[in-house]
């Protein structure tokens, strides 16, 4: 009976990306735990950048300084 | 000191239905546990159907296929 | 697709009370929203009284002072 | 690795107040626990007053009756 | 800055399975969203079967009736 | 009506530290928002290090490698 909540900043996540998150996370959970996907719910919660804090600062302030959360290459 | 979070898909829940959810759930909790309702908080969180996944699929995709979460009669 | 989280202090809630909470809350939710109970999950989270704060104080400190969360009669 | 969720009613909290909440809460957590603020995330979730229940009533109903959550002086 | 909470019933999930859940979910999230894994936190919450309700019933009651959440083959 | 959840790894947080977290966080929230502390609840959730993932790794694995979350001096 897994339930998964994904919280991320609201920065233009597309419907297709959400579809991939739901499919991918459900796949990991049900494979690792051998759980029925019909008992597996995933909820995505998008948070305004004003409402997320990291290192004591608002993410919207960090973004204005050019600091992103992108993967390093 | 109970706190109750209700997460559901954002599909036209009315103010009156929310009022009934709050009253009904508070009633169950305070009666079963003999708790003071003045210490009981209920939070309803409505989730876009793009953001809820079930069985590995987006609920908005399921709805477009005609699959609902309605009670069976 | 409702999901309900109930947080309460760990103060001797019995298995039978949990059963009543689950049945009662599921009943309210599925009736008010006309939702399929097979898509309705309820999670009870019991919190140690050291870990719950109210009015700026630890509930375990409040209990030691004789302050309860019981319903007033 | 602390994560802090702050839920409050959506009643005109300003960007500056959110900045103060994030800075203040991060400060308390990292000082009390001696944790690296770069591992500390704060998420603020604003809840419509129709969606928050207290004492079995919708906060929007309480507000219409003139009942606020303001600090008593 | 994603944060992921995974709630599942406490039914003998091993440390190795938790390791796989953390690695697998982080991989999906950071790939789909192109996010830095150093900003990605995953929290697993194991819930006693007495404390999880499905279809109005306690999971521990369902298990005693031989009903599992295992994947169908 | 604020509700605050603090999630942290279970690594020997004392009752006194919890008391300070509750008092300090309640103080920040009620001062910044001018809210009644009698409507302010704080819940601390301690998570086993096997159950917290950061950067795709279990915190218990990170700790065994000598990596901590302590504040840098």
TrEMBL record, chains A, B, C, D, E, F:
Entry's Gene Ontology molecular function annotations: isomerase activity
Key words of the record: Isomerase
UniProt xrefs under Pfam families: Tautomerase
Domain 4-oxalocrotonate tautomerase-like span(s) in chain numbering: 2-61
Keyword Isomerase: yes
EC number: 5.3.2.-
Alphabetical list of SUPFAM superfamilies matching this protein: Tautomerase/MIF (SSF55331)
Catalytic residues as annotated in Swiss-Prot or TrEMBL: 2 (proton acceptor)
Enzyme class, UniProt record, top EC level: isomerase
PANTHER family cross-referenced by the UniProt entry: 2-HYDROXYMUCONATE TAUTOMERASE, TAUTOMERASE-RELATED
Family that this chain belongs to: Belongs to the 4-oxalocrotonate tautomerase family.
Full protein name: Tautomerase
Source lineage: Bacteria, Pseudomonadati, Bacteroidota, Flavobacteriia, Flavobacteriales
